[in-house]
Amino acid sequence: MPTAAIGLDINAIDPGEEKQISGLTWAKDGSWGNYFVTRVHAAKSVNLLKSLIYSDNIYFAQAALQIGAEAFEKESAKFGIGEALPIPYPFSKSQLSNSGIQNEILLADTGYGQGEVKMTTLHVALVYSALVNEGNIPRPLLLEDGKTKEPGIWKEQAMTPETAALLRKDLIQAVSSPDGVGHGAYIPGKSIAGKTGTAELKQSKDADGQENGWFVGFDADAPELLLSMMVEDVKGRGGSSVVTKKVKRIFQQVLKNAS
Question: What's the pTM value of the predicted model, to 2 decimals?
């Protein structure tokens, strides 16, 4: 999602543009050697909405290249990436890369959340919270830190209100669409919005590593609750669908208790 927000805000992404992508693998050109980006759905024509519905790695890899490494790193700082979270608990700092995005392959992988990207589930939740806060990221509160604090803003205008509104609308369809990888969290009559993801832990593309499934979601009509969940070792178990089912049960229980 941050790649989409950055691209929209700096006009590097046209949400209506249809990218023509063939097959399940893609490389920019021969300079990448044997390296390529993979995706799950072989949609020939993909725009921003479809890329979110299908969680299309190739679309976001291409978008990152359009944004460029310098702009990507600069704009990512608006989300607090690289900073310690402003609470007295030793969460690890998020990062885009180990020592800067120094080549196109790393930039492409960063665009869809792979490469050397690291984020805690809390930081991911904070980033997505901008979608329901007019583009602002609220300051997290640790209720047992012994201090009384008022709610406030941690990162103002991480994205524009217009970008937040567009992505919020698209992410509702990413869940409601039967073709969407997040459809497992769909609840009829509710506007659940969200995005799946899979984090691969391995040293090289050809290696056999652990896969962790992600889902971040919220009820766009009543966004008091936003869930960011990661389940370890989902390879061979259904991938991110393992997570969407768990998220759906939580939302159903919350909605039941609220009725």
Answer: 0.91
